[in-house]
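can u do me a favor
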């Protein structure tokens, strides 16, 4: 990650520590689609990125270094760079049928 030429930190105006879960879900629900759209647009241009949250253990320190105000929530940290390899392809994933349920938890499709 330290070799990426750009580290993008998407932020949300407001803080929700101690807020009900629906308020927190709404907060992140407003930024996730925007960041995902950014990642897709970058990918279409040969630019890779990865959603990480490891820096959030040090959110206050990152805010101090970058001048991010206390009332702003950092949502993630994305290393962003042009892809330079030859095997840029989708990651291996567990087939969705392995963890998709119908009507109740554990009731697998089909």
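np, heres the sequence
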């Amino acid at each position: 990650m330290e070799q990426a030429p750009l580290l993008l930190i998407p932020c949300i105006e407001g803080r929700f520590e101690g807020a009900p879960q629906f308020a927190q879900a709404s907060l992140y629900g407003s930024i996730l689609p925007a960041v995902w759209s950014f990642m897709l647009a970058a990918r279409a241009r040969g630019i890779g990125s990865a959603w990480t949250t490891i820096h959030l253990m040090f959110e206050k320190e990152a805010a101090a270094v970058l001048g991010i105000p206390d009332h702003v929530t950092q949502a993630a940290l994305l290393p962003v760079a042009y892809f330079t390899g030859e095997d840029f392809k989708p990651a291996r994933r567990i087939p969705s049928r392995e963890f998709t349920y119908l009507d109740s938890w554990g009731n697998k499709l089909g």
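The longest strand covers residues 78-82. hope that helps!!
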